[in-house]
Amino acid sequence: KAGVTQTPRYLIKTRGQQVTLSCSPISGHRSVSWYQQTPGQGLQFLFEYFSETQRNKGNFPGRFSGRQFSNSRSEMNVSTLELGDSALYLCASSLGTPSNYGYTFGSGTRLTVV
Amino acid sequence: GQQVMQIPQYQHVQEGEDFTTYCNSSTTLSNIQWYKQRPGGHPVFLIQLVKSGEVKKQKRLTFQFGEAKKNSSLHITATQTTDVGTYFCAGPTLFSGGYNKLIFGAGTRLAVHP
Prior knowledge:
Chain A is mainly beta. Chain A has one helix at 98-101, and strands at 5-7, 10-13, 19-24, 31-38, 42-50, 53-57, 64-68, 74-78, 87-94, 104-105, 109-113. The radius of gyration of chain A is 13 Å and the shape is globular.
C-alpha cells in the first residue's frame, strides 16, 4: 500500500514569500502531523490534524498554519518566510492517536529560504 | 514542560561492537516509541513499549522500558554498517487541549566503521 506522500520534495523560496506544502497520508489514516527537522533543533512538533480538526499545536509563530481536507490530505503553509525556516518538513500519518499507534513518516519537503 | 533526553548525542563504533542509546523522560510515560532515520532519509517506526520493565527484541536490537516508565534503552549487538543512522525515542505528553502529542528526543547518531 502507498506510503505517506509529500510534495514537493525540494523547494527554494525567497525571504518574505509564502509556501504551501502538501501531504497525502496512508489510506485509512485520519491523523496527520507535521514536524520541522533542523540539525540544531531536532524534530519539532508543528501541529496535528484529525478528521479536519486541529487537535494539537506546537510552539511555532502564527506564520505557520495548516489544514486537513475531508479525504485526510493535509497542507501546511508558511507565510512571510524567514531564513530560519529553512528545514526539512516532515509529515507523519497515524491510524489514530499517534502516541498509541506510532507514526509513518513521509520523505519530507526540504525547504531552503534564501 | 516535559522533556525527553537522549544520550549520547553521537557514537562511533567499529563494526561488530555493541551500541546502546539511552532515553530519559522528566515525567512518567504511558509508552515509548523508537524510530530510526538513515542519513538522508526519514524516521521509520521501530517499536513501541508499553509495560513497565518491558523488553522486546528485533533480531540484534533489544529495547527496554524502565520499571518506573521514565527511561528506555536501545541496545544493538554486533553492529553492522546497515545500522548507521540516527535513533530517536519519542514519548507522549499531555496537551492542554486534552490530547497527547509525541515529543521526540534529540536522537543518537550512530556511525559504524567497517
